[in-house]
Amino acid sequence: MTLTLPEVVPATYVDAHGALQELNPQTRAVVAASVTGAGVPASPLVCCPGEPCADLTGRLENLDGVVLGDANGIGPEAGYYRLRTDDGASRLVISAPARFPQPERGWGWAVQLYAARSRRSWGIGDFDDLARVARSARAAGAGSVLISPVHAAAPCPVQQSSPYSPASRQWLQLLHIAVEDVPGAADVDLGDLAERARALNGQRLIDRDTVWVLKRTALERIWAATRDRLPLEHDVWVAAGGQDLHRFATWCVLAERFATAYWPSWPEQYRTPAGAAELAAEQAERVAFFSWAQWVADVQFGAACSAGATVVADVAVGFDSSSADAWVHQDIVCFDYEVGCPPDRHNLDGQKWGLPAVNPAGLVAADLGPFVAMVRSALAHAGALRIDHVMQLWRLYWVPQGAHPADGVYVHYPVDALLAVLRLEADRAGAWVVGEDMGTVADGVRETMAEQGMLGYRAALRLPVDQFPEPAMGASSTHDQATIAGTLTGSDNDDLRRIGKSANFEQLESVRRELAGVAGVDLSEPVGPDQVARAVRAQYSRLSDCAARVVLASLDDAGAVAERPNMPGTVTAWPNWCLALPRPVEDLLEEPLARDVAAILDARRSRAVAG
User: Fold this and answer.
1) For 286-336, what is each residue's pLDDT tens digit?
2) Predicted pLDDT at 607
3) Burial 111-146 (b: 16+ CB within 10 A, else e)
């Protein structure tokens, strides 16, 4: 099948204001040539177990090539298959339940994990801290804990700060390892490293570069002491990781050797996985080290996910150009473009996210393999997923490198198949799924989400609480928006002006006045901690009464933090993803304001049980 221009790269779209916008015709023509120029296998066939499917005729095989028999027009049991027809054609079949599993009505905490340091942390929040938050959440009646992405970063001297620009969405962030909980750590002297690492907790900004040096050194000491007596569980896990794990570990060795994740700058023979095979054999010990470190991270993340409230893993919209995922899947990545979003009322200049675009035709030709692996990895332990910018399943906005966001175009993806993968993997894991559907959303997206049981996402500082739908996760704001303290005090507006960030200040001031009115705060008087606490309680009282199935309270709000975690559209003007909570997380969770917020939100759970 050859994909056609109107299907994949449409000429127009409806913007966030409801106006029809024409996409840049020159960009559209170039993108169409790169995406639709070659024939690709037919899009996967999606069916439901036991339901009629007219196209399901031919010979059915499992993915190992074992013939299962003739297809009879009825969806087989849930799983992945290959359909072969008499004319020699082959097509991936995804048999998935029609709907996602559903969460109970309740509430939870939203946590930037890197920021949630405890006294025991080594300069950054870790998986032990996550377990602590999950236990506290469950004790307070919460059903969930939404965390920032825990995707892998490159093992380089300069660490990537953004959890949304990962080196891989399939593997884990080693900075989140709780070093002293690693098997064998008790037998190794880590005192000098622990002292230096805990000293980092005294500074508000997270120093990932130093944390990495200290944690890597500690892991190396433990590895040296234990590599000859690793448990069977390690061997089984590494074997199950197979080629994917081996390639990622090999990439880590190369990134470490050349002190950069920018693999196009490496010697030519190492710029592909095949070319790096000889080095991987020569550096088998170091490859084994990074594989072991991933096992350690996986064990700790699994323990945290089973410690208390359901952990909701956040899935980034893509991966960095200088990443293992881009290196492994470079044949289906379009490096001349980065994904983002067009201008809208909240981001007047639009956005470019620094993430390369994935060719949808290439993804189909790969039987959606990278997507399946990512989803399966994300649900290996977490009980729920949040899909950042859920539009990534339907379409992504491609902007040519160096161009203004207004000059981008939308490229469509095989949404039916991607949704089927999500439903199948979520059903296997018993997990529910949230799609972040704010901003410019295409017609029919929210209706499809509701029909299939995927929750939407709403933020009260962007949409009135009384307009929240029931099948949604509701919050006061997102990681890209102002906190309650920043809004009420006006410090967020001051920050925006100070760094020269474009914004609709009239609209932001209107939100501030509305919040103050609900909280009974007189903005003509100084706004201090008492007034902020009053606004936090008022905001979460409104959220407690809203229709949304699940409501989240931000630990930033519970800690009266004024700064945003991230200022979209900035690189160095704001300490994006580097601001820790102002106090140890175990203290913050026990403070009166956090306890009040928990009690306010837990009332909705009690009402649901009583009803």
Assistant:
1) 999 999 999 999 999 999 999 999 999 999 999 999 999 999 999 999 999
2) 74
3) bbbbbbbbebbbbbbbbbbbbbbbbbbbebbbbbbb
Give the pairing of strands 20-22 and 12-14: antiparallel
Checking if the pLDDT of 4 tops 60, the result is no
Is the pLDDT at 410 greater than 90, yes or no? yes
Alpha-carbon distance of 167 to 251, in angstroms, equals 10
Do 563 and 592 lie in one domain? The reply is yes
Confidence category of residue 11, pLDDT binned at 50, 70, 90: confident
Q: Is the domain of 35 the same as that of 116?
A: no
Separation of alpha carbons 8 and 284, rounded Å: 43
Domain assignment of residue 47, yes or no: yes
Same domain, 83 and 113: no
Q: Which residues pair with 52 in a beta bridge?
A: 74
Residue 375 neighbours by CB under 8 Å, 6+ apart: 315, 385, 421, 422, 425
pTM of model > 0.70: yes
Q: Between 461 and 201, whose confidence is greater?
A: 201
User: What count of other Cβ atoms lies within 10 Å of the Cβ of residue 539?
Assistant: 25
Same-domain check for residues 90 and 25: yes
Return the HEC string of 314-383. Answer: EECCCCCCCCHHHHHCHHHEEEEEEEEECCCCCCCCCEEEEEEEECHHHHHHCCCHHHHHHHHHHCCCCC
pLDDT of residue 39: 58
Of 484, 463, 458, 456, the residue nearest 555 (C-alpha): 484
- Assigned domain for 595 exists: yes
Per the structure, the count of domains in the chain is 2
Domain carrying residue 34: 5-95
Spell out the residues 6+ positions from residue 33 whose beta carbon is closer than 8 angstroms to its own: none
Q: What pLDDT score was predicted for residue 56?
A: 95
Final residue before a domain boundary, out of 62, 95, 128: 95
